[in-house]
Design a protein that fits this description.
By secondary structure, the chain is α/β, with parallel strands linked by helices. It has two domains: about 230 residues, Spore Coat Polysaccharide Biosynthesis Protein SpsA, Chain A; about 160 residues, Rossmann fold (3-Layer(aba) Sandwich). It is built from twelve helices and 18 strands. A seven-stranded mixed β-sheet has the order 5-4-1-6-11-8-12, with helices on both faces. Strands 16-15-14-17-18 form a five-stranded parallel β-sheet, with helices on both faces. α7 links the parallel β14 and β15. The radius of gyration is 22 Å and the shape is globular.
Length: about 400
């Protein structure tokens, strides 16, 4: 089963009573956070992992959510569609999913729209891809030294065996991190009005159909006033990540000359480990690749995109992610007229890097480029990015000290 899950449903219908006047006319998920709606930051994280279809499960102030969705869609760094499913009455978290049933795919991510858990979601995707048919869902879990604000879960291995009430203050526990991956069989456990956490999840746990993926990382629930205040500066600072740019042929895969199909693609030793390491360490990971094989007529752009999609899915199956990619199909001596030009994206020109820097709002001084050719180093230098020449061997062994030493 593929590790890429293209759809994410987000629960955005809560009342936000703990925030008082702040949510009188503005739903929690679209409260401003570092100059953007909080929901923008949440969705920006999901597009890193291949999500292209968002379904907002609305109720309270649905029209305000719809207006904000248009702004968010235009600002996201990768193309995505955003739809809304409005519950017909106050239906609870499980009821909101139930009323969206006709618009949900066979597998879908689900998350709370007012909390952010900065963790490597590829681990969830990779483990869920290997779950058997008896597993309905998998959730991200987090250990907390004080879990008194949250319900906690019991685990046996990775099997979730029970959901519990909130423990006494100061009690450590394992909490639900607010991100789920479900199959449509979840709908068999839902009613028009029900709670996901109080009704569906305990039943799934009792049936042995629920698994957990433990993760560590920053967690904020902006429905709590103190968390909301801290999130204003913490979240934008955290999510303006360091960036790793990778050339493709000769760095990620063995350069067999104009590789345009999976049957000719051979991973460089340690490449998947390197992508996983960078993702786990909180870096963006991008591919920037010259693809003159298109200009020479060896394969077309659709083949390039298909192979890049397969590379990204393979990376997620291994516990890492490719956040985004750029390729240049042009060459000054192209055999195909439409591709015959000296294009600003073709390395040694920096166009691909500069486009990603602008799109993802990156700091070149906090970025690294790994390439195997002098043209890669020239493109990095022109973009203000530190370049490192890879001459072969294990990519993780080469990359790890570079990332560890980057301030």
């Amino acid at each position: 089963m593929t590790a890429t899950v293209a759809q994410c449903a987000i629960l955005v219908g809560g009342l936000g009573t703990r925030l008082g006047a702040l949510t009188a006319n503005t739903p929690k998920p679209i409260l401003p956070c570092g100059g953007r709606p909080f929901l923008y930051w949440l969705m920006r994280e999901f597009v890193r992992y291949g999500v292209t279809d968002f379904l907002l499960l609305t109720g309270h102030l649905s029209a305000e959510i719809e207006r904000a969705a248009q702004e968010i869609q235009a600002a996201l760094p990768r193309p995505a569609t955003i739809g809304l499913s409005e519950e017909p009455f106050r239906a609870g978290t499980g009821g909101a999913v139930f009323h969206a049933r006709d618009r949900l795919r066979e597998r879908f991510l689900l998350c709370n729209g007012d909390s952010l858990f900065d963790c490597n979601l590829a681990n969830l995707l990779a483990q869920a891809a290997n779950d058997g048919p008896d597993v309905t869902g998998r959730i991200v879990l987090r250990h907390l030294p004080d879990a008194s604000r949250f319900g906690v879960v019991d685990l046996q291995g990775d099997r979730v065996t029970a959901f519990k009430e909130r423990p006494a203050p100061g009690t450590p526990g394992t909490i639900n991190g607010g991100v789920y991956l479900f199959k449509r069989t979840l709908l068999d456990h839902l009613r028009p009005a029900c709670s996901l956490e109080a009704d569906a999840m305990p039943a799934l746990a009792a049936a042995g159909a629920l698994r957990g993926t433990l993760a560590e990382g920053y967690f904020r629930d902006i429905g709590v006033p103190d968390d909301f205040a801290r999130a204003q500066t913490e979240i934008p600072a955290l999510l303006h990540r360091k960036a790793l740019f990778l050339d493709r042929d000769g760095v990620i895969n063995v350069d067999h000359g104009h590789v345009g199909s999976r049957d000719r693609f051979e991973w460089v030793d340690g490449a998947l480990d390197a992508i996983r390491f960078a993702t786990q360490a909180g870096w963006h990971v991008f591919i920037v690749t010259n693809q003159s094989g298109v200009a020479r007529g060896f394969y077309d752009e659709a083949a390039v995109r298909d192979l890049l999609d397969w590379i990204a899915d393979s990376a997620r199956a291994a516990g890492g992610t490719i956040d985004d990619a750029r390729y240049c199909p042009y060459h000054p001596d192209a055999a195909i007229d439409a591709y015959r030009q000296a294009h600003p994206w073709r390395k040694p020109q920096p166009g691909m890097l500069l486009d990603l820097i602008e799109t993802w709002n990156l700091d070149p001084a906090r970025s690294v480029m790994i390439g195997d050719q002098p043209t890669d180093m020239a493109a990095a230098a022109a973009a203000g990015v530190a370049g490192h020449l890879f001459t072969g061997g294990n990519l993780l062994s080469f990359l790890r000290p570079i990332l560890d030493n980057q301030s």
